[in-house]
Amino acid sequence: MSIWEYANPVKFMRTSGAILPWVVAGAAVCTVTGLTWGFLTPEDYRQGSTVKIVFLHVPAAMMAINIWVMMLVASLIWLIRRHHVSALAAKAAAPIGAVMTVIGLITGAVWGQPMWGTWWEWDPRLTSFLILLLFYIGYMALWSAVEDPDSAADLTGVLCLVGSVFALLSRYAVFFWNQGLHQGASLSVQSGERMSAVYRYPLYLTMLGFGLLFLSLLLIRTRTEIRKRRLAALQAREMRT
Amino acid sequence: MIALLRRDLRLAIRAGGGFGLGVAFFLILCALVPFGVGPDTAALQPIAPGILWLGALLACLLSLDRIFALDHEDGSLDLLATSPLPLEGAVAIKALAHWITTGLPLIVAAPLFGILLHLPGAAVPALLASLLLGTPALSMLGAFGAAVTVGLRRGGLLLSLLVLPLYIPTLIFGTEMIRRGQEGGDTGTPLLFLAGITAGVLAVIPFAAAAALRVNLR
Amino acid sequence: MTLLAVQDLAVARGGLRTVEGVSFALDAGQALILRGPNGIGKTTLLRAVAGLQPPVAGRIEMADDAVAYAAHADGLKGALTVTENLAFWAQIFGGGDVAGAIAAMDLTGLAHRPAAALSAGQKRRLGLARLMVARRPLWVLDEPTVSLDAASVARFAAMVRGHLAQGGAALIATHIDLGLDAGVLDLTPYRARADSTARPAGFNEAFA
């Protein structure tokens, strides 16, 4: 029994089909509970009710980065071990990651308006998210432009590797370019209590919810991609005979 | 390898436009900016480093798709891939040829166009140094983008979409260096960053670009 | 001496297997003509032998840097002259006698013309002359006689014969009778079976 067994499409379809309802249910429960709980928290003495957008903003921003990392790992698995499910999972993850990035940017703008008095600020964190969005767009555009599925998987895999390096590089270059207004990491471990427990626990719950939400969307989309590949293969077989 | 470089340079000269077009585009861009923002020195001077770098970047972008597209069409790329020359070396040489035909003329022209944008003379050394260190990375990253998109329909548009985000770090450190030069500040830090990025790009990207080319050839 | 040994080869185009189970060997001095209907995968097979695309299954055994490949595109630059084009490829392939190759394909009178001014047949001849300067033992040729007239075809056949006599080998996909003393391999029986076409690189067999 090894993890690579799930690289077999049939095995993947069977297992993912079995766990999908549970993941979806978990995502729904965690997200709804977390967001409701978050909405019922008291207002912050400085930020007022605007603080409540944190329960959307932080999980979305976190997932935006994590999804890219997941795509990087999946691309590496494809490039090294040639498991098709892995390549298709990376393809399936990209639009979800792009949407998470957009949610992070929009909620950030909505939050920034009352806090900083501007919808957009060329702050390092915001800017690096915008750059991340550009990388997501380029990655998806390349997938849709290449016709042969295996070539597309190879090219996007290489792009993902190079893009990761440059996304990281841009992130630090941007700090050099402009010191920002953005508050530091809200949940930083080493710098002690930044955020009171009243906000922290619902935030953990929404983060878990967004993680499960991503997982359920990823499974659904990967299953769709596998079925699409299967369908194309069947059609090609029919044309031959 | 030298033969490939000589052929590419000869083709650039004979086909015309190899050396001239990029610079002409650069000139037009620098001439249009004052129409957009007004002729005041106070308005132009602060944005001059950025305009010069953006102009260089866009002029570089214009000719990127030609790095591999023509060789792909006429079959030369297939033959190069079956030749004793490693494909990584061919990529590096073609990026070098692109830099000589596009980057080098831009560097020569940049101080002149800086005058148009009221760039103070004190910033010219920083301008030249930043372009000299930064543009090789632009050509190499461009070769990577061209390798990924060679043979694709609508490849040109996709190429800019893929390559421009990769240019961000170079652009940031390049303009920062000129800005510091303009203010008489310390240009050492951005210079080191710029050189570091270019060195890293030149060392690693040929392998990524050759891998992409092999995928596109099969 | 065996220059090329192909065992149980299968190739795919556009993610679909075209031919499978192809085996043959080429010794020094031998030529092999590939035949078969359009779309059977002659070009794909030749590209696999030339190392431009990986085979789906099977083995291709030969020495490194043994192949000179010529296909529909000749790899010529219109802005360069005939001699310059050929000299470039001679330098890249570490090779041979440019003037001799030009003479062999009867291009001497055109040696200083830019390649853009050549006719289709003349370009083809220049593309084939490149084989002589590449100095590779194994020629892999895809429809080499397209747009050649009868005299040029004879000239080309003589060139191939000379190459074979010097211990080279040639793998040629063509429908023309070149008058070579060559084996013929018809790919039709090797057409990929319907149930295996749909599994290009191990994705779908899991569903079977």
Automatic annotation (TrEMBL), chain A:
Q: Which domain of life is it from?
A: Bacteria
Keyword annotations for this protein? Cell inner membrane, Cell membrane, Cytochrome c-type biogenesis, Membrane, Transmembrane, Transmembrane helix, Transport
| Topology in membrane | Multi-pass membrane protein
Question: Coiled-coil segments, which residues?
Answer: none
Residues forming the Cytochrome c assembly protein domain are 4-182
One Pfam family from the record:
Cytochrom_C_asm
**Cell location:** Cell inner membrane; Membrane
**What InterPro entries does the record point to?**
Cyt_c_assembly (IPR002541), Cyt_c_biogenesis_CcmC (IPR003557), Cyt_c_biogenesis_CcsA/CcmC (IPR045062)
- Biological function: Required for the export of heme to the periplasm for the biogenesis of c-type cytochromes.
Family according to the record: Belongs to the CcmC/CycZ/HelC family.
What is the name of the protein in this document? Heme exporter protein C
Q: Which gene encodes it?
A: ccmC
TrEMBL record, chain B:
Q: Does the keyword Calcium apply?
A: no
According to its UniProt record, where is this protein mainly located? membrane
Q: Where in the cell is it found?
A: Cell inner membrane
Q: How does it sit in the membrane?
A: Multi-pass membrane protein
Instruction: Give one GO biological process term.
Output: cytochrome c biosynthetic process
Q: Which UniProt keywords apply?
A: Cell inner membrane, Cell membrane, Cytochrome c-type biogenesis, Membrane, Transmembrane, Transmembrane helix, Transport
Q: Which residues belong to the signal peptide in this entry?
A: none
- What is one Pfam family matched by this protein? CcmB
GO MF, one term, reads: heme transmembrane transporter activity
Give TM regions. 12-37, 43-64, 96-117, 123-150, 157-178, 190-213
* Keyword Transmembrane helix found: yes
Q: Which GO terms describe its cellular component?
A: plasma membrane
Task: Say which family it is in.
Answer: Belongs to the CcmB/CycW/HelB family.
* Biological function: Required for the export of heme to the periplasm for the biogenesis of c-type cytochromes.
Indicate what this protein is called per its UniProt record: Heme exporter protein B
What is the species of this protein?
A: Paracoccus haematequi
What gene name does this entry carry? ccmB
TrEMBL record, chain C:
UniProt EC number: 3.6.3.41
ABC transporter domain spans which residues?
Answer: 4-206
- Cite the PROSITE patterns for this sequence: ABC_TRANSPORTER_1, ABC_TRANSPORTER_2
Q: Which InterPro entries match?
A: AAA+_ATPase (IPR003593), ABC_transporter-like_ATP-bd (IPR003439), ABC_transporter-like_CS (IPR017871), ABC_transptr_haem_export_CcmA (IPR005895), P-loop_NTPase (IPR027417)
Which keywords describe this protein according to UniProt? ATP-binding, Cytochrome c-type biogenesis, Hydrolase, Membrane, Nucleotide-binding, Translocase, Transport
What top-tier enzyme class does this entry carry?
Answer: hydrolase
Q: Name one GO molecular function term.
A: ATP hydrolysis activity
Pfam families on file: ABC_tran (PF00005)
Q: What are its GO biological-process terms?
A: cytochrome complex assembly
Entries under NCBIfam families matching the protein: ccmA
Q: Per its record, how is this protein called by name?
A: Cytochrome c biogenesis ATP-binding export protein CcmA
Please give the organism.
Paracoccus haematequi
Q: Which gene encodes it?
A: ccmA
